[in-house]
Amino acid sequence: MTKSEIISQVSEITGLTKVETETVVNGFFATVSEALENGETVNFRGFGNFIVKHQKARNGFNPSTKEKIWIDEKYKPVFRPSKTLKEKVNNSLKK
Asked: Which of 11, 20, 31, 87 shows the greatest Cβ crowding within 10 Å of its Cβ?
């Protein structure tokens, strides 16, 4: 599902125009992104959590040349679905 498909469906459900819905969706994404940039966790009960995960610096290697390389530390945004969402997806796809 693409962003434009989400905007269309939300627009139909809420009765807002697609332009208004796009503004709301863009604002939502900007707010979540800003919170993650600040290292905050974003919680949606019954849906899941967006968190920032720290990955330590480590030694690695280039698989094609087998050359050793140093991989710097990084922070990655991660989505962790709630138990409720996992169960809903699992049950609907089992049918």
From this structure: 11
Domain boundaries along the sequence of the chain: 3-94
What are the b/e assignments for 31-50, b being 16+ CB within 10 Å? eeeeebeeeeebeeeeebeb
Q: For 39-86, how does the pLDDT look when each residue is reduced to its tens digit (9 = 90+)? A: 999 999 999 999 999 999 999 999 999 999 999 999 999 999 999 999
Rounded (10°) angle between helices 18-37 and 3-14:
120
Which of 1.10.3720.10, 4.10.520.10, 3.40.50.300, 3.20.20.140 would CATH assign to domain 3-94?
A: 4.10.520.10
Calculate the dihedral angle through the C-alpha atoms of 23, 26, 28, 33, rounding to the nearest 10 degrees: -160
DSSP state of 92: H
Do the Cβ atoms of 40 and 30 come closer than 8 Å?
A: no
- Which band of pLDDT confidence, cut at 50, 70 and 90, is reported for residue 12? very high
Q: Which residues partner with 87 through β-bridges?
A: none
